[in-house]
Design brief:
alpha/beta; 6-stranded mixed β-sheet; 5-stranded mixed β-sheet; globular
Length: about 325
């Protein structure tokens, strides 16, 4: 057994997974991952990056504050708990890839964790997401190949494969980016929604150029936009990861939830019990991305996974 710490710093949130992993002996599809600690903080690191090309001082400080708390947890569950040093990997994705001042981010992370953050490519992000999402799907026996879709704040990753990633594409459509670019009113106007949908559809056409999405038999959706839509579709009074994880949500349910979110005011969206406060502003765009994916690629349902790139980062450490 190996105790590891994975940190995923995206455009909208920074997340931590401390886990105990027992590797499998069957070519990377077995083994067990047991959560010790799983945390998420909405820090909006990518706020304004689409417009300015830089990480703002306020966004960096919000991110570093959350990371200092994570470093304390890693220490508590590591040497302080008698487990010895924990293998740690910090991965940064879309917002940091796009920022001209990403060196400021790197220096801050090294100061906090003592490791250099890896600003990974979209393709590597997609591969880690695929591993994290599909490692435990065998028990459900869904039809293969899978199309794994990870809707982030700045980008969305598309990965096709059966037991590993065979084709992948990262595209710059995400819930924060689409909100800042299009959905400016409260609630957004029909013209703003149409503009966002057209932007998303154009990106989905680009994905088809390198990922044979029509070969996929099961759509697997990851990340907070997807899990929040699932929680609303399931009618949950509060966020319950155990009920959301591996749930199956139909295209009709996704469309209904998306329509409701896009026509609701910010105050009305905040009333949903499953809604994280930091997701209220951007959930409409995230839901719209999922809805357009299902419409354009012809999926009748999505299997929702609570496990994603964060779990893939953890597995990569063993």
């Amino acid at each position: 057994m190996t105790r590891v710490a994975a940190i995923d710093c995206g455009t909208n949130s920074v997340r931590l997974l401390i886990a105990d992993i027992v590797p499998g002996g069957d070519g990377g599809t077995g083994g067990t991952l047991t959560d010790v600690e799983r945390r998420m903080e909405i820090v909006r690191l990518g706020e304004g990056v689409d417009e300015t090309g830089r990480l703002s001082p306020a966004a960096l400080e919000r991110t570093f504050t959350a990371m200092r708390g994570y470093a304390a947890l890693i220490d508590r569950h590591g040497a302080g708990a008698g487990h010895g040093p924990i293998k740690t990997r910090v991965v940064a994705t879309s917002a940091t890839r796009d920022a001209a001042n990403r060196a400021d981010f790197v220096r801050g992370v090294v100061d906090i964790f003592g490791v250099v953050p890896e600003v990974i490519s979209g393709d590597e992000e997609a591969g880690l997401s695929f591993t994290g999402a599909t490692r435990e799907l065998a028990a459900l026996r869904p039809a293969r190949p899978y199309l794994v879709v990870d809707i982030g704040g700045g980008s969305t990753e598309f990965v096709l494969g059966s037991s590993s990633a065979d084709a992948a594409r990262s595209i710059d459509i995400g819930c924060v980016r689409m909100t800042e670019r299009h959905l400016k009113d409260d609630p957004p106007s029909p013209q703003q929604i149409s503009g966002a949908a057209a932007d998303i559809d154009a990106a989905l056409a680009v994905v088809r150029e390198t990922v044979p999405v029509d070969e996929a038999r099961t759509l697997v959706g990851l990340a907070g936009s997807v899990t929040t839509v699932a929680g609303i579709a399931l009618g949950l009074p509060e966020y319950d990861a155990s009920r959301i994880h591996l749930s199956r949500i139909t295209a009709a349910q996704v469309h209904e939830v998306t329509r409701g979110l896009l026509h609701a005011t910010r105050a009305e969206r905040a009333e949903f019990g499953v809604m994280h406060p930091g997701r209220v502003d951007v959930i409409g765009a995230g839901a719209l991305i999922l809805d357009r994916i299902m419409r354009e690629y012809g999926f009748g349902a999505v299997v929702v996974s609570e496990h994603d790139i964060l779990d893939g980062i953890a597995w990569s450490l063993v």
